[in-house]
User: Fold this.
Amino acid sequence: MKPGNKTIAAALLSLTMVTAFAGCSSTDTPGENTSGTSGDDTQPITFTYFSEDSSTNWNNMNDEVGKVIKEKTGVTLNAEFAVGDPVQKLSLIAATGNYPDLIAAKADVGKLVDAGAVLDLTDLINEHAPNIKKMLGDKLVRTKYSLEDPSIYAIPTWSAVEEKKIRADAGFELQHRVVKEAGYPDIRTVKDFEKTIQSYITKHPTDENGNKNIGMSLNADDWHMYQVTNLGFQTTGGPDDGEYYIDQNTHQATYHFRRPEEKEFFRWLNHMNAIGLLDPESFVQKTDQFKAKVASGRILGLADPEWDYGDGQNALRAAGKFDQTYGHYPVTMSKEYKDTSFWLAGFDGGYGISISSTCKDPVRAIKFLDFLASEEGQILNNWGIEGKHYTVKNGKRSLIPEVQERANNDGAAFQKESGLALYWNLMVHYGDGIKDSTGNYFTRNYPELLSSNYSEAEKETLKAYKAEHWKDLFPTEEDFQPRAYGAAYTISLPNEDPSVILGVKMKDITWKRIPEAVMAKPEDFDRVWDAYMAELDQAGVQEMEKVYTQHIQDRIQLWSTK
Assistant:
């Protein structure tokens, strides 16, 4: 599945790096990154930019960080972010030949390659992007397009070059008041999750204003449907590999909904609907309606990434309703499965920024991206401006307390004003847990800061579960083997590829059938599901799986080349 805005603001994926770490070549040492642009050309220039991701807090680079970026590089972005179906918009761009200077096409870069719309960036990186080249080091091979065409068509910005993920921001969520009233039970399976919600809603069917409490709500609005369908593999031990389940030994790809285990998850959602614990508006509400329900405090449980419901949760914090905010729990169908939230894909060189073949000044464009990748650029994005947003005392960097408070409780408005963490998906970057040349973390997701920002309700819940951080409840990175192919969903394919053509058919079928199955009467569930499986077969799902398996194996071969 395509992660929507794994932006995920907040969603906001974090960015950070340790001065020395195992398995990293010397070329990757973050402290050796140079600062500034690769030249002195900072004359004003405006680049047009299109992104398949949304950016609700974009302020035309008039935020405080954006103004510094413009001053340092001379570059202003005239940006357009996807509204509605981003793939449809990207296809239109590719077809019309009206290309923005910079394009973030995610897995759809193949459409631009087919149209001759993007440049091979290999020489531009070698000649004008020392920060990007140094940071990628021996991982540069992972940015190559394919075995047949080893060009670099996108500067990877989605995946952190190195990361030690610290912050749990997914899984299943329950309000702190709900688990407290239940006596802090073990929340490990969907039945545990269901029982805890049922216990609370039986005692408290309405809120203090007489409005009906909601057991669990889903956001299935447009592309957010992926957040619902992803739960199939999430609860049955699969890592996030898009629409496929990849066998880690054979590397065979299976359209993940065809796994019998996942049928049982959607049967459980059907059961939740039948007993009145699932929001009946889950498949018809818009994202704004979903967030408003979160902000009302009436939704007791979620199974949604924090970047998606975060605006609603921030509203609860601003209102002082901390017991109605959420903790994260590693919920699966049964204890035989492990939650895979911390099964990292490693650096996969997939989603990123392309420079179009009609770009007015490709050299200035690559220098702009190179500044963002510099240590200076990354610190600016994550921490802001020294003296205005952060201070350094005794060598330790920290946000000014008033700034930290606004970042915690006034997230969207503060980000739009300040620009903190707004530019992460425009830059090659280090991830959480990684330190810069001064010994400070690149990103603001690190253990000490997380602890200091927990509300009293959150601290109380964590203490009850004998945990310091939510991550402590989840399986760790060490519990999973590395994926030789990264994240499968980042593979870019041409328009005419059979798996792309067939994938559109499968998506259309799935997005129709999943809501139908979940909302059906329980006695009709098997009939609906069997019809769904038959329809996939008739549409060529097995051929699609065969083709995608070859793509997985080709990527493994490509990444093994030097």
About this structure: The CA atoms of residues 171 and 330 lie 5 Å apart.
